[in-house]
Amino acid sequence: MNHKLKIHNLLNEIASELLEYIKECESSYEDRWVPAADIKRNLELNLVAVPLGNPRGEKGWLFGILARMLEEQNLVEYQLVNRRAYYRTKIAQANKT
Predict the structure, then answer these.
(1) Which of 2, 62, 73, 78 has the most beta carbons within 10 angstroms of its beta carbon?
(2) Is the model's pLDDT at 93 over the cut of 60?
């Protein structure tokens, strides 16, 4: 298996784990909308993505990539309310178990 394929397979595994976490959290939130900020904080997904010499702080870039992957697979829904992002699993996916 080449490096590109391995990396993309690992990203898909991480995205699947994120999906499971969102499903587990949904029952604690109104209309199942889980705040992205809570997800990033609870899973410690705010990471520094610049070289050590760059003074910029932590960002949710990894979460953003994973959430977009799940959206493209039609597994999660996204909404923006008052500049705050929320996610929930698609109904069909949430009912599978």
Answers:
(1) 62
(2) no
